[in-house]
Amino acid sequence: DMDFGNLSSFLSIFPLRKETEGLYTYILARIRREPTKFSRQEVRKFLKRMIRGSSTWNRLAAYKLGIILFGKRFASPADQDSSRIIRQWARSLAEGPQEELF
Fold first, then answer.
1. Phi and psi, residue 5, nearest 5°
2. Cα–Cα–Cα angle for 21, 75, 97, nearest 5°?
3. Do residues 101 and 64 make contact, with C-beta atoms less than 8 angstroms apart?
4. 93, 72 in Cβ contact below 8 A?
5. Which end of the chain is more exposed for a tag (fewer CB within 10 A), N or C?
6. Residue 4: what pLDDT?
């Protein structure tokens, strides 16, 4: 099992590409389960990279986790996202409280 606790090293070794996206998904799940094991600054950087370059569903998951960890402002770029699904989610987020984020 690789140690992914140092997200800066991970980000420098594994650029986000189609063939590494599964690894990013795995890291996202680890951060969601144990957010205190990671530096907040590194988590923010990691999530922003996912939002810039991954699939719609991974971008949405990154936005959602970002809201939980950093507040609603983290998702402010979502209303300009290229994905209609994410833009609709951002609109519903702006319209009121969410029953459940996941």
1. -65, -30
2. 120
3. yes
4. yes
5. N
6. 58
Angle at 99 (CA atoms; ends 24, 76), nearest 5 degrees? 55
The domain spans of the chain are 7-95
Identity at 89, one-letter amino acid code: W
Q: Beta-carbon neighbour count of residue 81 at 10 Å? A: 19
Buried b (16+ CB within 10 A) or exposed e, 16-32: beeeebeebbebbeebe
Q: What is the pLDDT of residue 99?
A: 58
Location of structure tokens 């650029």: 15
| Cα–Cα nearest to 89, from 55, 80, 10 | 80
Per-residue pLDDT tens over the stretch 35-64 = 999 999 999 999 999 999 878 999 999 999
